[in-house]
Amino acid sequence: MQKTILITGAGSGIGRDAAWALAARGHRVIATTQTEAQAQALRDDSAHAGRRLEVFKLDITQAEDRERLRDLSLDVLVNNAAIGDSGSLAEVDMARVRQVFEVNLFATLELTQVALAGMIARKHGTVLFVSSVAGRLPVPFLMPYGMTKFALSAAGAALRAEMDQLGRHIQVALIEPGAIHTGFNQRMTGAKFEWMRENSYFKDQAAKMQAREAREFRLVEARSTRSVVACIVRAAEARRPRLRYVAPWLQGLVVRLARMVGV
Predict the structure, then answer these.
(1) Which of 17, 53, 84, 28 shows the shortest CA–CA distance to 228?
(2) How many angstroms separate the CA atoms of 71 and 58, rounded?
(3) Which architecture characterizes domain 4-182+223-260 according to CATH?
(4) Residues 83, 75: Cα–Cα separation, whole Å
(5) How many Å apart are CA 100 and CA 113, to the nearest integer?
(6) What kind and span of H or E run contains 30?
(7) Which of 112, 127, 215, 251 has its CA 20 to 30 A from that of 205?
(8) What is the pLDDT of residues 67-121, one digit of tens each?
(9) Which of 145, 184, 193, 245 is catalytic?
(10) What are the structural domain ranges in the chain?
(11) Which of 15, 243, 230 has its CA nearest to residue 127?
(12) Is 201 an active-site residue?
C-alpha cells in the first residue's frame, strides 16, 4: 500500500537515505530540508541517482514553514531533523542548550501537532520520532544533546499512550539510532572544543579528550545507515509499530546492559 510520507532533515545522512529507501518501495516521499540550498542539492542528488522525491524547504523552527503541513494529507510523519551540541553541564552556555531543545524537542512537537490535526480528523496516521540511544544513557560532555533525546523519547512514549485513548487510529513510535558514521557525531562532539580549550574547567584535558573521542568513534560507529533506515521503513509501513526500534542492535544491547548495571 502506497503511503504519503514526509521526512524532516532529509538533506543528508539518515533522513536522506530513509527518503530514498521509502521512495524505492513505491511510497510518495516528501523530503524536506532546513534551507533552500539543501533542498536544491537533494533534488540534484536524487535526480542523478534516479530517485523520485518531492522536495521543499521546511525549517521546523519557523511557524510559516510548519503550517505547510496543513495542506498535506500525510500517512506518516518522520521527525528526523535535529541539531547537536556538547560540553560540560557545569559550564556550557545555556543559550546553546536552549537552541538544541528548541530544534530537537519544541519545534519537533509543534510540527507534530500540525500533522496530528489532520491525522486525528482522518482517523489515520503514524508519527515517528528519530531519537537516539543517547536518550537512554547519560554520557558525560554529551548532555546538551542527550537531554533533548531523553525528553523526546519520553514525549513519544507518552504521546503514543495518549493517541491510544482515541481508539488506536494514530500510531507513534521511536527510532533510536546508535552511533552511525554520517559526520553528525563528530561535528556535535567537536563543538565543545570551540570554547573548552581556553575557557573551561577541563581545558587541560581537552586535547586528550578529543583524541579519545576520535578513537572511540572509529571503533563503535556503524559505517552504514542501513540498519536504522530499515527500522524507519518497518515502522512507517507497520499497521501497529512497536514503541521502540533501536539500531544497530548491538549498540542497543550495550546500552541496555549498561542501564541494567547502573553505569
Answers:
(1) 17
(2) 14
(3) 3-Layer(aba) Sandwich (3.40)
(4) 25
(5) 19
(6) strand 28-33
(7) 251
(8) 999 999 999 999 999 999 999 999 999 999 999 999 999 999 999 999 999 999 9
(9) 145
(10) 4-182+223-260
(11) 243
(12) no
